[in-house]
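stage 2 :: seqdesign
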């Protein structure tokens, strides 16, 4: 069963782990709170781009989607939000590998099946934070990408 949370607010300060740099901005305990703060920033940015929130934090066994938006042209957009403090391991965009894309696709298929067949066109975007810089990757990947 999948679930979608329509609205939530969260704030987070950047945690530290001693003097050692942390590539994903947080330790395990803080990751959900920090992730929610980045999702809030991504959501605010996408709203400024004339996109409307449909659902957030869609989760089901085997997949998850951070944000589901509708753009001004009516396209349903599934958005993955990722953040990395540095590019040591390829950065935030590179962290959306094949396994992660498969999990997003699985959740999107389920979301669409629950919403009905008259949904219209869809696309998969990513909003990534490289350090503190936001980068919007429209059409970041497609269902048929291998």
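stage 2 :: out
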């Amino acid at each position: 069963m999948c679930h979608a949370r329509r609205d939530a607010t969260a704030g987070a300060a950047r945690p530290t782990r001693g003097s050692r740099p942390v590539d994903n901005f947080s330790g395990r305990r803080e990751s959900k709170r920090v992730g929610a703060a980045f999702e809030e920033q991504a959501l605010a940015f996408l709203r400024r781009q004339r996109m409307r929130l449909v659902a957030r934090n869609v989760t089901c066994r085997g997949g998850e989607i951070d944000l589901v938006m509708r753009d001004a042209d009516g396209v349903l957009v599934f958005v993955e939000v990722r953040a990395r403090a540095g590019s040591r391991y390829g950065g935030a965009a590179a962290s959306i590998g094949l396994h992660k894309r498969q999990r997003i696709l699985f959740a999107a298929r389920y979301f669409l099946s629950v919403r009905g067949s008259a949904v219209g066109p869809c696309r998969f975007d990513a909003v990534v934070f490289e350090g503190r810089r936001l980068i919007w990757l429209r059409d970041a990947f497609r269902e048929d990408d291998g």
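stage 3 :: structure notes
- The longest strand covers residues 52-60.
- The beta strands are 3-5, 52-60, 63-70, 76-84, 122-130, 133-141.
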